[in-house]
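Exercise 7.
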Amino acid sequence: MQEPEEKKIALELLETEQAYVNRLHLLDQVFYTELMKEAKNGKTVPEEVVKMIFSNISSIYQFHAKFFLPELQKRMEDWTCNPRIGDVIQKLAPFLKMYGEYIKNFNRAVELINVWSEKSPPFQELIADIQKRKVCANLTLQHHMLEPVQRIPRYELLLKDYVQKLPPKSPDRDDAEKALEMIFMVAKYSNASIAEMERLQNLWAVYQRLGLEDDIVDPSNELIKEGPIQKISIRNNSTSEKYLFLFNNMLLYCVPKVIQVGAEFQVHLRIDVDGMKVRELNDTQFPHTFLVSGKQRTLELQAR
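Solution. The predicted structure, written as tokens, is:
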């Protein structure tokens, strides 16, 4: 007799989970443990750096090795009398939020490996030595570290497939559908964590270009658009190069600094979006011009 399709997928989930736990063991019990041991002896890099590279990999490893994998194994052994995995995955789903921290930290971790490999030859040698072992299968530390980042999308795909293949009256249908919904929410959560991290990094880079002025630095701001602009001087009928940053709550009118040490721009004027008016002008001498007026001042500007 041929195995039912849903059982094949449940078995694939178990097999990939076993391989995944081996990969987590390698990251936590081999790379992290050995690098930490050398860091404690003061031979390679500061302990803090090793901790930052591996983030919360130990918690992730413990969870999969001690809880999720044994639960799945038990289920597959009892499959003939109890063909279901949906309830086990429902128990797993909330814990997958732990991945948010690991995923958010991933790019920084890879950067730290590269930076410290250049700074500390013993650190690089130890990593190279571990990578030569059979268990690494000729793959780099960075490659192995990518595995947890890809695991949640993998669960989502397998479970989606599992739900589709379940017979309509399967005792696992309700649980499996609920589990899929929960996994989908967790995937969304980790994607949102990455997006939020990127937004803050980009925002911080903009604040640095503006010289980190106290009244401007606010993590809740959103940069909408930035770019060069010409300021029209009606008095002497000329234009000069300026730069605008439009945030959700303010428009910053800036002057590019000639000597770019530290900040790239100097903020000349801040106009609050609340109460700001923008009006297009039909000026034949200066095309593409518009007026921006705030509570204190009005600017006549020309776009490219």
